[in-house]
UniProtKB/TrEMBL annotation:
It comes from Thiorhodovibrio winogradskyi. PROSITE patterns: HDOD. It comes from the Bacteria. This is HDOD domain protein. Residues 44-243 form the HDOD domain. The lineage of its organism: Bacteria, Pseudomonadati, Pseudomonadota, Gammaproteobacteria, Chromatiales.
Length: 311
């Protein structure tokens, strides 16, 4: 007799035992070696051509707001997102603007460039839009995380010294591993998403390892390595759940992890649970006061410039 996976509820991993494993072995069979599936997949998306152009502008000392606006306008969707961002309550002034160059001027060159880079990097990944790690929810979580990180970096300049553009880019894209999983392996993505919804008391890396054998942070690292992304972003993607991380670009990694933890504590995470001791270690490692963090997240979330849909 064949078990029908559709009629077996997703397991509560906190109470998982050998009987469950035997009863559900067909319904919850691990999806194989995800590393092999990802690395052998012929549809692993290359870095988008537009992202390459934007990276070239980032390295060009002579780049201007006009050249950036002209590059952004090559993609109508990207242009509309930049305009939406510039006209949001967080960034907007009293006057609505309708040109990309005016949007770049209002946001600032570096902020506009790194926001455009994040959009360009995520745009080719066709991730399903259902469940706790659905596309729109990942996008909104990234925007919130980016904003919390920027506010902390601005208000704690003595303790945190990072370029705001890099902070923004890390915040938006740190969960790109989930985007990649949904793009390449939608069946495994849906299975993982259901497990996350069924197990709010466990951390996301714990659930990832049970469902996939790897963490979303590793998937993101593999993609960023293939795209030859800068080391600070690759390390933040890989280690943002690790409060014990020590090494290059340590502040960016820890700040990304802290913002992720703050959002989870505020009920605006992706699901799962950051251990309290991990949250406290992020604070201690960065030398930040919990009260200051509470003020920052309250301010940031009150003015989060969220769009209704992901790029």
């Amino acid at each position: 007799m064949t078990l029908n996976a559709a009629v077996i509820p997703e397991p509560d991993l906190l109470h998982w035992n050998i009987a469950n494993v035997d009863r559900c072995r067909l319904a919850h069979l691990p999806p194989g070696d995800i590393r092999a599936l990802v690395r052998s997949n012929e549809e692993l998306p290359p870095m988008p051509a537009l992202a390459k152009q934007l990276w070239a502008l980032r390295d060009d000392d002579n780049a201007s707001a006009q050249s950036l606006a002209e590059t952004i306008q090559l993609d109508p969707l990207l242009a509309s997102q930049i305009l939406r961002r510039a006209n949001s309550a967080y960034h907007g002034g009293v006057r609505t603007i309708d040109s990309v160059q005016d949007a770049v001027t209002r946001l600032g060159f570096n902020t506009s460039l790194d926001f455009a880079l994040a959009l360009a990097a995520l745009s080719p990944l066709r991730t399903p839009n259902q469940g706790p790690i659905g596309r729109d929810r990942l996008w909104q979580h990234g925007l919130r995380c980016s904003l919390v990180m920027q506010e902390l970096a601005k208000q704690q300049r003595g303790a945190i010294q990072l370029p705001l553009g890099l902070v923004q880019l890390s915040g938006i894209t740190h969960n790109i591993g989930y985007f990649l999983l949904g793009h390449l392996l939608p069946e495994q993505f849906h299975f993982l998403s259901r497990l996350i919804a069924s197990n709010p008391g466990l951390s996301l890396p714990t659930i990832d390892r049970f469902a996939l054998g790897v963490e979303h942070t590793q998937l993101g690292e593999w993609l960023y390595d293939a795209w030859e992304m800068p080391a600070p972003l690759l390390l933040a993607v890989r280690h943002h759940h690790n409060p014990a991380y020590k090494g290059d670009h340590e502040q960016l990694v820890l700040l990304t992890g802290l913002a992720d933890s703050l959002l989870e504590q505020s009920g605006l995470g992706l699901g799962g649970c950051h251990p309290t001791e991990d949250h406290d270690r992020f604070l201690a490692r960065l030398g930040l006061d919990p009260t200051a963090c509470s003020d920052v997240i309250e301010h940031a979330l009150a003015e989060t410039p969220l769009g209704p849909r992901a790029p």
